Amino acid sequence: MINVRKLIFCLTIAGSLTNTLSAQVTNVERVNPIIGTNGMGHTFPGACVPFGLVQLSPDTDTIPHNVDGKYQARVYEYCAGYQHKDSTIVGFSHTHFSGTGHSDLGDILIMPTTGELRLNPGTMTDPDHGYRSRFSHDTEISRPGYYEVMLADYGVKAQLTATKRAGVHKYTYPKETNQRILLDLIHGIYNYDGKVLWASIRVENDTLLTGYRITNGWARTNYTYFAVSFSKPIKNYGFEEKGEVKYSGFYRKFDQKHNFPEIGGRRIVAYFDFDPNASADLEIKVALSGVSSAGAVMNLQAETAGKSFDELAVAANKDWSDALALIDAKGTDDQLAMLYTSLYHTMINPSIYTDVDGQYRGVDQNIHQAKDFTNYTVFSVWDTYRSLHPLFNIINRQVNTDIVNSMMKHGEQSVHKALPVWSHMANENWCMIGYHSVSVLADAIAKGLPINKKEALKAMVNSSTIPYYEGTGEYMKLGYVPIERSGSSASLTLEYAYDDWTIYKTAQSAGNTETAATYKKRANSFKNIFDTKLGIARPRYTNGEWKENFDVMSTHGQGFIEGNALNYSLYVPHDVNSLIELTGGDKVFVNRLDSLFDMHLPDEFFAHTEDVTKEGLLGGYVHGNEPSHHVAFLYAWTSAPWKTQYWQREIMNRMYKNNIDGLCGNDDCGQMSAWYILSAMGFYPVCPGTNQYVLGAPYLPYMKVQLENGNSLTIKADKVSDKNRYVKAVKLNGKPYTKGYITQEDIMNGGILEFTMSSKPNKQRVFKGTDRPYSLSEE
Amino acid sequence: MINVRKLIFCLTIAGSLTNTLSAQVTNVERVNPIIGTNGMGHTFPGACVPFGLVQLSPDTDTIPHNVDGKYQARVYEYCAGYQHKDSTIVGFSHTHFSGTGHSDLGDILIMPTTGELRLNPGTMTDPDHGYRSRFSHDTEISRPGYYEVMLADYGVKAQLTATKRAGVHKYTYPKETNQRILLDLIHGIYNYDGKVLWASIRVENDTLLTGYRITNGWARTNYTYFAVSFSKPIKNYGFEEKGEVKYSGFYRKFDQKHNFPEIGGRRIVAYFDFDPNASADLEIKVALSGVSSAGAVMNLQAETAGKSFDELAVAANKDWSDALALIDAKGTDDQLAMLYTSLYHTMINPSIYTDVDGQYRGVDQNIHQAKDFTNYTVFSVWDTYRSLHPLFNIINRQVNTDIVNSMMKHGEQSVHKALPVWSHMANENWCMIGYHSVSVLADAIAKGLPINKKEALKAMVNSSTIPYYEGTGEYMKLGYVPIERSGSSASLTLEYAYDDWTIYKTAQSAGNTETAATYKKRANSFKNIFDTKLGIARPRYTNGEWKENFDVMSTHGQGFIEGNALNYSLYVPHDVNSLIELTGGDKVFVNRLDSLFDMHLPDEFFAHTEDVTKEGLLGGYVHGNEPSHHVAFLYAWTSAPWKTQYWQREIMNRMYKNNIDGLCGNDDCGQMSAWYILSAMGFYPVCPGTNQYVLGAPYLPYMKVQLENGNSLTIKADKVSDKNRYVKAVKLNGKPYTKGYITQEDIMNGGILEFTMSSKPNKQRVFKGTDRPYSLSEE
Q: Is the ipTM of this complex over 0.90?
C-alpha cells in the first residue's frame, strides 16, 4: 500500500496526474499535508486522526520564544514545529496546532538514536553535537494519519500514526547498532527557559512509563499527562536534569540517574535503551490525557491494546477515509488536492479534550465529567467563527454540537463566565479580540443544532457584559470603544456590534424580548464609529471626537488589528445595507470594493505584517488574515453581484496552491481551508447567525456534499473554468432560483444546486427585496 | 469562656495550680500547646482538631532553606514555623508538621493588615518595612483548637480555630482604619526561591476565592488547593508577582493587577480590602484539599457552611474534649499538663488527607476514591513505629486501621511498591532509614486490627526487597549492609533485621511458611554485624572485614545515624536474649546499660547534633532521638528489672517539662509524646509486632484508659512518687501478676492494673521463663 501511495503522492506533488486517473485515487490519497508547511501556513506534516487530541509530528527546530527576556522573532516560523526548508529533525512530539498564528504545545518529544548518548538537541547549524538528525524530503511520506521519514544520521526509519488520544511510533534501527529512545520533556514549541514548571516520569514496569508535565506558556498552565508503552522491554535507562536542582530532599540516598523508576524535575531528558538482538524494530504507543496519568493509561488501553503499528495505521487511514467521504468532487488533481487537503485541515482543530471515560480538565482546572457530550479544545474563535463552524453546521453537525456544548461548559467554568476567546487545553489565552463564541452559538442555533437556547443566551449575555474585558465597559457606556482604552478600538467596536447582533437573534429565538431589544440596540453600535464624511470606520476618543492623523491604509496604530481601516470598514456583516449607506451609497460602495481589489501597493507595504505572505494580497485585499474573508461576497447586496464571481475565483486561484508554500497566511485551525471549501461550493456565510449563505460561483464542475441527515447536496457547474467563471443562472432542484443566497434549509433538504456558467457576467442578475441577503436595517 | 480559660491558662503556665482545683479543670484546659515551641521541640501553638488536615498557626519567621544554593542552618529552628523567642508574626499559615526534624508546608499564609499596602514580609530585625507585626506573648492564648494574639503593629486581634479540613480566622480591626487581608502564596516553611512551581487564585465572587499552589520542597510536588470565604464582600483587590514573568501570553489586554479575578504566577502575594464601616471584624474560612479546588469548596461547605467563628471554636473544643477523654488521670498540674499535652501532640500527625467525599491524591499523583477507609498522610515512620502506632493500637484503633490502610494504598500506588518511609501530602521524601511501615502493619495485625493479612504481607515483602533501596540489595546478598554502600550501614542492618522479624511474624500469622522461613533468617542478620570481641555492633566492609578506626562514642562516620555505636548496639528489640549473649552475658549487659545512663560526657559532646538539646541526654543515653527509646526497658530481660523503674522516671522528670523548652528534642509527630504516655502507664512496647508491653513503673497514682471496645483499663499506683518509684508487686484485676509484661489482650479486656510502690527496689522481682518478655531465640 505504501509503495503505491508513494508513487501517487509524488505524482500528485508534481501536479501531473491526469483526470483519467481520478477514479482510482481515493480522497485520502488526494490529501497533501505538505501544503502550507513552509513559510506562513503553519501546518504540520505528521500523523493524526480527525479531531484527535494527538498530532504526532516531526519538529524541525526549537527556536525559543525568548532568550534572556528578549523575544526571538523567528519563533513565529515554528508555530507548528516544522518548516519544510529545514534539513534536520529534532524529534517527534505529540501535540501541534494546525495553522495558528501564535503557538504552544510540542509536548512529549520522542527521538530514536544510536551510538553515543547525547541528551541535548543540538542546533540546526551544528546537528552533530546534539541528538537531532539530518533528513531528506525524498524519504518523507506524509498522508492523513501516517508519516514516515529516514533519520539519516542514525539510519533509523521512523514511521508514525495515531489514534484519537495516542501517537504510535515504529522505529526500525540498522543492524549492529544500539537502540535508544530519548524522551525530552524540555522540548516544546514557543519554548523558553522555565516554561516547564514540572515534569515527571514513572517507569511502571519494563514496558510502561507514565508521567506528566506542566507548562506555563501560551496556556498559562497546561497539564499533559502521558502513558508510554514499548513493544519490547527496557534494558537500561536514566535521565539528566538540566535545570538547577535547588532542593533534592533525601533523594541523595539513591542513584537516581540510572534505573531509578521515579524521575522528576524542571528540565529533564530521559533515555531508554533496548536490546537490538530482540528485534530490529521498536513500536511505541504514547497516549495523552489532560486529566491524569491514570487517564492516559486508560486511553492507551482503550485505543491501542493488542493492536500493532500496522493495524493502527490502517485504522487511521480508515478514519480519514470516512471523514473525507463527506465530499465527492471532480476537478484537476491540483484542485482536488487543494480541496481534500482543505477538508483535512478543517478536521484537526478543534480537538477532543476528554478521556475515553468522559473526564476532562476544565478551564477552572478542576476535573469534570462530560455528560452527553464530548469535550473539545483549541478554539481560535476570532478566526473560525467565520467559516469553520458554519461549514461544520453543514457537514459535521454532531462535532459542532459537541463544540458548542464544550464552549458553554467553558463559559460556566470560567471565573469571568466568559465563553472562549482563544482557548486551548483548559486555558484561555485571550488572543485576538471580540467575544465571537456568541456567533458560534447563535449560528448553531440558527442552523438547528440541538442547543439549549436559554443556557446559550445566558452564556452569551455573560460574555458580552464583562466590564473589564477589553473595552467592553466603555463600549456599553459610550456605544463604542474609545481609542484611549485600546489600540484596536475601532475593530473592537465593529466586532462587538456584530457579536451583539448574534445575541439579539438568539434572544429573539429564545423568546426573550427584553434582552433582544438591548442587543438590537448594541448591534447598531457600528454606526457610532462611521465617519460618514469619509465613508470609513474611524476611531473616536472618549470625548466623542474622531481620531486625528488618521491613515486608512496603515495597519499600525490606527485603531484596527490585523487589517487597516480600508478593509475593516467593510466589516458590518449583519447590516450590509446600512454599511452601503454609511459608505456613501451603492456606487461609492461598489467602487470601494473594486478599488480594494484593484489597487497597486508597493511590495514593501505589508513587509511588517508577520503572518501574511505577499501572495496573500490582492491589491489592498488581505486574504492571509481573516477580517476580509467575507468581502468578496458583499457585491451580492449591490448592483454588481457578478463581481463576487470574478474575485472569488481569483482569490482561490492565487492564494491556494498545491505546494509547500500553498497557503498565503496561517491556516488558523482550518479557517482558511473552510473558506476555500465553502467558496468552492459557490456560497459563503457572510453573516453567521442568519440561515443564509450568500451565492457566488462554484469552483468545480461537480461537488456532492453528504449530510448527516442522509440527504446530499449536489452542486453542478458543468463548464466552469477560469474563463467561464460567471454565473448566468441558477436552478435548485430543477427550478429557477433567483435569490442571492441559499438557506440552511435548502442545503439540509438536499438535492441539486445547478449553476449555468458563462464567460460573461450576467449583469441583470441583481438581488432585490427578499432576494437580497439579510440586513438588520431591513427587519 | 475565654476569660475563665485565660485565667486558668496563666495559672497552669505558672505551675501553681493546686491539686484541689483539678476537678474543675477539663482535660482540654490541661493542654499547654506552648510546650516545645522554643528550641528543638518544633511544636506549634496554633489551632487544629484531632488528626485534621489543617493546622492553622502563626509563623514567626521564614528563614529560607537555602539562599543562592547555600544551606541556611537556622531554617532548622523553623520546622513548625514558630519559635517562642521571636517577637514578630509574619502571618497565619494553614499547614504545619508537629515536631518534625526536617520540614515543609506553611501553605496559604493569611495576614490582616491596615495602613499602607506592604506586600513583602519584612525581616525580624526590620519589621516596619514589611507586613509582619510585632506581638507580645501576654496577648497570646493557645489551647487545643484555638489560638489568639494581638498584632501590635496593627491593633488587630487575631483569633484562629479549625475544623478537620478548614482553618477559621476572625480578625477584629481597630476603629477608623482600613481593613486588609494579605494572601501570601510565596510564604512557606523550608522555603527557597523557586519552591513554588505555580500558584493560582480565582476570585469566584465577592466573598469566595479558590486556588492552589504547587511546591517542590521536601515533598517533591505538593498540590495544595484551597477555598476561602469571607464574612463580608471584598471591596477591592489586587496582587503583585514578585517572580519574573517571562511569558505573559495575551494578558496584556487586561489590567491584571487590580480587580482581575484570575490571578496566577510563580511568586504572588494578593491583597483584599474590606469595608471598615460594615463591621469591625472579618471572619475567614479557608478549606484545603489535596485533590482540587472543587474539593476544597466541597470541604468548605461540608464543614463550615452557616457556622460562625464562635460556633466552630466551640466545636473544635468539643472535638478535643472527646479525644482527650480517652485518658483520665490524677497528678500534679505540671504532670497533667505534660500528660494531656502529650496526648494532644499524638493526635495532630498523621493527618487526614481525604476530601469529605473520600477522594484523595495518591503518591502516584492520581486521584483515588477511598473505599471503606479514610486516607491519612504525614508518616514519620522511623520515629512513630516505636510508640505512636502501638499507642494508637490501644486508644485510637480505628484511626490506626485507617492509617495502615492508607500505608498499604501508598504501597500499591508507589512505583517502587514501597510502603511509606517518610511520606507526606502524596509524596515520599525518603527521610531516615529502614522500611518500618512493616512494623506498623505487623503490630496492627498482632494487636487484632482488621487488616487484610495477605495484602499486608505482600506489601511488606515488596518494601523489603527493593534492590536499589538504601543497601537492601547488598543486605539480601551479604546478610548486612556494607559500609561502602551507606554511611548508616550498621544502623541499617540492625533496623532491617528487626523489620524482617515483623515480616516473619506476619507471614507466620498469614500461614505463609515459606516467606516466614525466609524472613526468620533475615531477622537474625543483626548477628552478622556484632563484633563479639567488643560486644558491640560494628560496621563491616563488603569483604567481611570489620570497619577500622572504629569509635563507639562518635555519632559521625561510624556507620550509625542519629545515635552512636553504644546506643545502637542495644537495638535488637526482637531478640534481647541474643543481644545479651552477644554483648557478653547478663552481667556485662546490665553494666553496659548502667554505664550508658551513668557516664559523664563533656558538655560539648553533642554540640553538633542539631536536633537534641543538652537536656536530652542522660549520661550517654539520648532521649531526644529515637533509637534508644526502648533502652530503659531492656532491664526486664536481665537480673535487674528494677533499674527500668529508676531510669524511666528519671527520663520523664528530666526530659519532659511544662514550659516552652519542655521537649528535649523534636516531638517527631508525637513519638516523644507517645513514649511519655505509655511510660506513664507503666509499660512500653519494646518490640512492636509482639502483643507484649514490657512493664516498668507507672508515673502517676491513677490513670484510666478508655478503650474503643467499651472496656477501660485503670492503672493504680497509690503512693507513687519520685521517692516511691519502685514496684514492689503487681496485681491484675486483683490477682498477683508476675510477668515482666502485659499483653494486648490484658489491656483490651480492661480492668485494674495495680502497682504497689516502694521506696526500695524489689530485687527479687526478676522475670524468668515465660514471665520474661519475648525473644526470637526462645521460640
A: yes
